Amino acid sequence: MVNFAKAFSDYGKALERIVYPPVCQLCSTDLSWFEEIICESCKNSFRKLQPSLCFRCSKEIGPFSARTLCEECSSSTHCIEKTWAIYDFNASLRKFFHQIKFGSRHSPLMIFREEIRTFARQNIPENFSAVVPVPLDWKKRWTRGFNQSKILALFLSQALESPLVELLKKKKPTRPQSILSKRDRERNLAGSFRYSGKQALRKETVLLVDDIYTTGNTVRECGRILKANGAAKIYVFALARAGLGESRDFTFQSLEANR
Ligand SMILES: [Zn+2]
Ligand SMILES: [Zn+2]
Fold first, then answer.
1. Domain boundaries, the chain
2. Helix or strand or coil: residue 201?
3. What architecture is domain 47-257?
4. CA 52 to centroid of ligand 1, rounded, Å
5. What residues have a C-beta under 5 A from ligand 1, the ion?
6. Is the sign of the CA dihedral 86, 87, 89, 94 positive or negative?
7. What are the residues whose beta carbons fall under 8 Å from the beta carbon of 243, sequence distance 6 or more?
8. For residue range 157-205, what is the model confidence (pLDDT) as tens digits?
9. Secondary structure letter of residue 47 according to DSSP
10. From the CA of 58, which ligand is nearest?
11. How many CA atoms lie within 13 A of 72 on its CB side?
C-alpha cells in the first residue's frame, strides 16, 4: 500500500532541496543529492585512529608497537577497563564540533550513526546493563538544547541492544579541563557529578559515553561515582580521542570552552 504521508513528506523534502539547495556546514559547497549536513570531502577529512591503540584510553601508540598500554596508563591505575574511540580529534573534527555547538533542528551527529553502529558491532563484544551518557550541567543543557553524548549513547544503545540509562547528573559548571594543570583538573571535577539512579547498581557492567575524550578525567570521575554506587566494571566509548599535546593549543581551548 502506498504510504501517502511519507510520499508527501519525501516530496516536500525534495522540493525544499530544489528551492533551497543545502550546503556543506563546514565548507559551504553545494551538497549533492546523496550528501547530508556535510560533503564527502569534509567527511573524509575526519581521520580514524590507527592501531596500535592503548587498551585503556585508546591513545595511538604507533603502528609497530608491541605495547598494549600507553606510558600514562602503564604508570597509573584507574577505574576504566577499556576505552573505544573511532576518530582522532583533528582540526576538521574540531571545526565540526565547534559548528554544531549552536544547535540545529536535526542533530548533525546523525552523520556518524552508521559508522558507530558498524564499529560497535565489530569491536564491542560486551553486553552492558546500562549505556550511560556523560551529563551536561544545566547551563550548557539549556544553552545548547541537547547533550551530544546522549545522542551518541542512543546510537550505541540501539547497536548493542543495551538500555540507555541516565545515571549521572552534573551538579555544577566546571572550567575547561584542557587549560588546567594536572592537579587542578582533578580538583576542578571533584564533586561536580552525582549519581541519579533510583537504586544502587548490582555489580553491573556499564558503558559510559562521551563525545570527546580529552584528558580522561571526566570519564574517570564518572566511573568512580558509578563504581561507588555498585557498578562492577566501567567501559568507555568516545566518538573522538584528543591527543594531550594538541589540547594545549589556543584553538582547542577556545572550542572546549564552548563544550
Ligand atoms: Zn564540505
Ligand atoms: Zn592509555
1. 1-44, 47-257
2. coil
3. 3-Layer(aba) Sandwich (3.40)
4. 30
5. 24, 26-27, 39, 42
6. negative
7. 59, 60, 88, 89
8. 999 999 999 999 988 777 666 666 777 776 777 778 999 999 999 999 9
9. P
10. 2
11. 16
